[in-house]
């Protein structure tokens, strides 16, 4: 049987020396890619498999052999294909990456089930973190911290998920088939059946168009997010609480009142983020809230009905409490027909009767039946606790603290709204609207839409409760007036929503001014009143993307740390309960990287048991698409959030920040100067647009939001950070994640000092490790060919010299002979993928060169399709986009 892949399996030539994959993933990859080879032979055009093999083998040889001849041979093969054949070959490599990613995900699930930690000795679970915290501050104090723990992911529609939903759905089906295969044994008929079903699904994946033909609208993005909620989050969140409670309670778990309070809350920008997105209107926001509410209420209804069906406890053995009987009588009075039917179906089973009516009341809430609907989630929780307490009092503790407790946790976490719908808008838009209104002009259509948003928020709060909406984020907050403007617009709207106005500090200058802006705005009457009403709770958002694009990644990371430290100190001094909201993306240039290690590197009081962040694009599916991985991610982030308040962690971070303060300032100055010298060079912006597929990425139909806020490529000011990062990753440069670091390290020059900083300073270690990963995915030979498209040798040499300098210093600081020598498993994964990414990059380069040639006789639509297809494939290969 033809096999598209032998190299990722260290069974022959092509595997990096000394690096091998675990046996199970070897077997999975071999199986999947062998089946892909069969599909290509059966379903591809004549000769396709041989052409794929030719480029595959040449790319492997070029990766292993640094000679120009080996690289030229691979390039020659890629250049020889017709555009139609190149398109097919690119699709084959893209499907290959999807299958390998699936195998790696399956292996990670196995490791999680086996209890294997990603890094030996990590305190990466909530029970471990609680044990460590208890050892430092005492068990009672640690338990109090656990009660106040809060993890708040906010899902966004930022367009960085390069896969179509149809592709993602096919991969989920393949994942299920792989899991099923592992459990059926080795019977011949089962093996044949499994192989046949896998072949069918891989053939479907091959035949599924990899690119979207229509740009998704905001409602499509809402429904896409709902698949994550329905398939994982609804069930996973109570499982996380249960797992932690089981670990803490031991033998008493499941028959005693839970120790764990629900510590997770969900937020969403999908349907609420209108910054630069003209398609998100007040009407869309209402629709988004309605869709989310419908999904969560359907889930709660189904769960309550399932519990009711199993609650067949007779009153003779499990007597009802007086409170339960009173609740039943009140239910009977509200709807005699419903109660009578429940009693007829479950005679002498009072707990089942009550739960049946509770399920019906949840359905009525969804259908907006005012006579029977719950007024709010709190009313539902009160009734569930009556049932729970009645069961406990009658000796049925396991029924009391089993499924009913899980349902209570779900209601406490999701409410009737599922996720708080947050609004975001640019400060300049508010200022323009107020200028119209203050001048007494008739409001324009745009201003009317802005005012309608406030009316919508008020309406959502009335319908779904105050937790359904109310956070209003102001992009590019540069003064206290930018926040005050939101209150003034709310007054003009005539609505009276409860608003938490949240500044978003994004640029270097805004981060430095954050504290003074907060000091001023808390004196504004409306802001101060809200602060008092919440008991001193204040949220501040920090932008990683634009700060990195503004001053470079290193200066941005260090500036963000300083801003957090300054804001946190101010909050402590003023008795404010601060929550910092981290606007992180998936790529390193947008604050990506392991979340738990980033949390443990933050300054004291900047976390304080509360962590909120954006989950964007491909990150959403990577972290929450599989139930086991979702549970693991939540556990790791919650553990780090809990542990961040440990005195040992805070003291370590303070000591390191103080010791290396002068070094940090030197790094900021040097890296920023180097970054500025590049991006502020004359003609840089149009050069960037030529040497990367930045413009074409905007045509990938990734999301509803435009790639730019309005300016041309003559300026980077208005270019969104997502295409900035995405484009550099496609060109195999990843400049947004490292440029300026090499020069800064060389300017410090003290290798001993920098090695000490790497060992002692968590923030610096995180930056160095993340850059090492970013550079390992870059390729200087391919990068040069992209950069030379712009005919600016000065820019080209600047970028490549900085890349080499950064590589050199990372290896010197970390140790070893090459990047990622200290992380062999990650190095293996990168090295095994890189030759195949190279093959796609050669095809993309050819398409980009043809499109840049400007020859109208060329079949530009075909070349553009090839380029966009290769973008999707490279994204799957390097596993991050924007």
Any low-confidence stretches, pLDDT <50, length ≥5? Answer: 1-19, 709-713
Helix/strand-derived category reads: mainly alpha
Cα(first) to Cα(last) distance is 38 Å
Q: What global shape is seen?
A: globular
Radius of gyration: 28 Å
Q: What does the largest sheet look like?
A: 8 strands, parallel, barrel
Mean pLDDT over all positions: 89
Relative helix content:
55-70%
Total helical elements = 38
Count the beta strands: 8
Percentage beta strand: 5-15%
Strand order in the sheet with the most strands: 1-2-3-4-5-6-7-8
Give the helices and strands, then pairings.
Layout: H1 23-43, H2 48-64, H3 68-80, H4 83-113, H5 126-137, H6 139-147, E1 150-156, H7 165-183, H8 188-207, H9 218-249, E2 267-268, H10 282-310, H11 322-334, H12 336-345, H13 350-367, H14 377-393, H15 397-400, H16 403-414, E3 420-426, H17 427-438, H18 445-464, E4 469-475, H19 480-493, E5 500-505, H20 508-521, H21 525-533, E6 537-543, H22 545-551, H23 553-573, E7 577-583, H24 595-599, E8 610-616, H25 618-624, H26 627-643, H27 647-659, H28 661-679, H29 684-691, H30 694-697, H31 721-730, H32 741-748, H33 751-760, H34 762-776, H35 780-787, H36 793-814, H37 824-853, H38 860-878
Parallel strand pairs: 1-2, 1-8, 2-3, 3-4, 4-5, 5-6, 6-7, 7-8
Helix pairs in contact: 1-4, 1-8, 2-3, 2-37, 3-37, 4-7, 4-37, 4-38, 5-6, 5-26, 7-8, 9-10, 9-16, 9-26, 10-13, 10-16, 10-18, 11-12, 11-13, 11-14, 12-13, 13-14, 14-16, 17-19, 18-19, 19-20, 20-23, 22-23, 23-28, 27-28, 28-32, 32-36, 33-34, 34-36, 35-36, 37-38
């Amino acid at each position: 049987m033809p096999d598209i892949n032998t190299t990722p399996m260290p069974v022959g030539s092509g595997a990096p020396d000394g690096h091998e994959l675990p046996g199970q993933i070897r077997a999975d990859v071999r199986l999947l890619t062998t089946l892909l080879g069969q599909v290509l032979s059966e379903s591809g055009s004549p000769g396709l498999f041989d052409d794929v093999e030719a480029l595959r083998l040449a790319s492997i040889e070029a990766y292993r052999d640094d000679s120009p001849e080996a690289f030229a041979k691979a390039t020659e093969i890629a250049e020889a294909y017709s555009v139609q054949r190149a398109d097919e070959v690119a699709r084959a490599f893209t499907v290959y990456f999807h299958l390998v990613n699936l195998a790696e995900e399956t292996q990670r699930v196995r490791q999680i089930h086996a209890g294997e930690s990603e890094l030996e000795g990590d305190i990466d679970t909530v029970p471990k973190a609680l044990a460590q915290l208890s050892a430092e501050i005492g068990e009672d104090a640690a338990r109090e911290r656990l009660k106040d723990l809060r993890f708040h992911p906010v899902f966004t529609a930022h367009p960085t998920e390069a896969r179509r939903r149809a592709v993602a759905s096919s991969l989920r089906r393949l994942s299920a088939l792989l899991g099923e295969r592992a459990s059926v044994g080795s019977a011949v008929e089962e093996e044949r059946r499994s192989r046949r079903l896998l072949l069918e699904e891989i053939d479907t994946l091959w035949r599924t168009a990899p690119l979207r033909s229509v740009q998704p609208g905001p409602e499509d993005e809402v429904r896409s997010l709902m698949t994550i909620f329905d398939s994982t989050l609804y069930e996973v969140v109570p499982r996380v609480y249960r797992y932690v409670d089981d670990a803490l309670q031991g033998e008493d778990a499941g028959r005693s009142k839970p120790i764990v309070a629900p510590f997770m809350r969900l937020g969403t920008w999908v349907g609420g983020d209108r910054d630069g997105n003209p398609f998100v209107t007040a009407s869309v926001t209402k629709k988004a809230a309605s869709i989310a509410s419908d999904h969560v209420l359907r889930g709660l209804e189904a769960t309550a009905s399932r519990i009711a069906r199993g609650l067949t406890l007779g009153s003779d053995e499990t007597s009802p409490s007086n409170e339960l009987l009173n609740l039943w009588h009140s239910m009977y009075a509200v709807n005699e027909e419903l109660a009578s039917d429940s009693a007829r179906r479950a005679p002498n089973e009072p707990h089942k009767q009550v739960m049946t009516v509770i399920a019906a009341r949840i359905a009525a809430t969804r259908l907006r039946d005012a006579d029977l609907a719950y007024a709010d989630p709190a009313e539902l929780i009160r009734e569930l606790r009556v049932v729970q307490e009645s069961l406990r009092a009658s000796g049925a503790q396991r029924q009391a603290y089993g499924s009913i407790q899980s349902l209570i946790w779900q209601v406490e976490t999701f409410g009737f709204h599922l996720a708080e719908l947050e609004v975001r808008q640019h400060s300049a838009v508010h200022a323009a609207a107020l200028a119209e209104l203050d001048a007494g002009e008739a409001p324009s259509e745009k201003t009317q839409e802005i005012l309608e948003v406030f009316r919508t928020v008020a309406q959502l709060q009335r319908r779904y409760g105050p937790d359904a909406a109310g956070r209003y984020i102001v992009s590019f907050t540069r003064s206290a007036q930018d926040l005050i403007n939101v209150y003034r617009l709310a007054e003009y709207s005539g609505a009276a929503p409860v608003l938490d106005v949240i500044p978003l500090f994004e640029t270097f200058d805004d981060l430095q001014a954050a504290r003074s802006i907060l000091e001023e705005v808390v004196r504004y009457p409306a802001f101060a009143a809200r602060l008092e009403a919440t008991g001193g709770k204040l949220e501040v958002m920090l932008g990683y993307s634009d700060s990195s694009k503004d001053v470079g990644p290193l200066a941005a990371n260090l500036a963000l740390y300083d801003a957090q430290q300054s804001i946190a100190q101010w909050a402590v001094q003023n008795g404010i309960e601060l929550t910092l909201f981290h606007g992180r993306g998936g790529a390193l240039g947008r604050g990506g990287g392991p979340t738990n290690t980033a949390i443990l590197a933050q300054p004291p009081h900047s976390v304080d048991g509360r962590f909120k962040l954006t989950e964007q694009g491909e990150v959403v599916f990577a972290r929450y698409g599989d139930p086991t991985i979702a549970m693991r991610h939540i556990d790791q982030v919650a553990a780090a959030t809990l542990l961040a308040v440990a005195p040992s962690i805070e003291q370590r971070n303070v000591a390191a920040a103080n010791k290396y303060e002068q070094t940090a300032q030197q790094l900021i100055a040097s890296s920023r100067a180097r970054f500025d010298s590049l991006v502020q060079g004359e003609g840089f912006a149009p050069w960037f647009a030529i040497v990367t597929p930045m413009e074409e990425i905007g045509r990938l139909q990734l999301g509803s939001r435009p790639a730019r806020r309005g300016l041309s490529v003559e300026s980077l000011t208005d270019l969104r950070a997502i295409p900035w990062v995405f484009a550099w990753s496609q060109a195999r440069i990843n400049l947004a994640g490292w440029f300026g670091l090499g020069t800064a390290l060389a300017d410090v020059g003290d290798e001993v000092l920098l090695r000490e900083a790497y060992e002692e300073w968590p923030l610096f270690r995180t930056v160095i490790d993340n850059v090492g990963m970013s550079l390992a995915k870059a390729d200087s030979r391919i990068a040069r060919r992209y950069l030379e498209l712009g005919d600016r040798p000065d820019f080209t040499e600047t970028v490549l010299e900085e890349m080499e300098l950064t590589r050199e210093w990372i290896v010197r600081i970390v140790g070893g002979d090459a990047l990622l020598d200290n992380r062999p498993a990650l190095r293996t994964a990168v090295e095994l993928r890189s030759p195949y990414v190279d093959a796609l990059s050669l095809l993309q380069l050819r398409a980009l060169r043809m499109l840049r040639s400007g020859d109208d006789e060329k079949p530009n639509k075909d070349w553009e399709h090839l380029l966009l297809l290769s973008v999707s494939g490279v994204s799957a290969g390097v596993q991050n986009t924007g």
